[in-house]
Amino acid sequence: MENKEKALICPIEIAMDHINRKWVIQIIRDMFFGKKRFNEFKEGKPNLSNKVLSNCLKEMEENGLITRETNESIEYKLTDKGLALNKVLYELAMFTINTDINNRYYDEEDKKELKEVFKKTLL
């Protein structure tokens, strides 16, 4: 039998496969900011249907990003794997804030405040 080389897949592609689905990053961000119940994830997202959210949470659980705990109600929590995305989210936020040189999205005061919020929450 020949020794076949295993085709290497880019680790960035693998990571993106887990988080690139619609709503995943927003849900993970929300969990860092304290949201943990189904209806809390829908706040501020009028286009997020119950079915899509349910499927998204199920996929995230299958990918090991979150766990589902049932006590008096159902709560979702980030696993160690999900928590490890903190620096990724922080760097994405800083990329947007730091490259907004013409203040298209944020004025300077907002930038300063956002940097502190994300630093405190994600680092």
UniProtKB/TrEMBL annotation:
<protein>
    <submittedName>
        <fullName>Helix-turn-helix transcriptional regulator</fullName>
    </submittedName>
</protein>
<keyword id="KW-0804">Transcription</keyword>
<dbReference type="InterPro" id="IPR036390">
    <property type="entry name" value="WH_DNA-bd_sf"/>
</dbReference>
<dbReference type="Pfam" id="PF01638">
    <property type="entry name" value="HxlR"/>
</dbReference>
<feature type="domain" description="HTH hxlR-type">
    <location>
        <begin position="10"/>
        <end position="104"/>
    </location>
</feature>
<dbReference type="InterPro" id="IPR002577">
    <property type="entry name" value="HTH_HxlR"/>
</dbReference>
<dbReference type="GO" id="GO:0003677">
    <property type="term" value="F:DNA binding"/>
</dbReference>
<keyword id="KW-0805">Transcription regulation</keyword>
<dbReference type="InterPro" id="IPR036388">
    <property type="entry name" value="WH-like_DNA-bd_sf"/>
</dbReference>
<keyword id="KW-0238">DNA-binding</keyword>
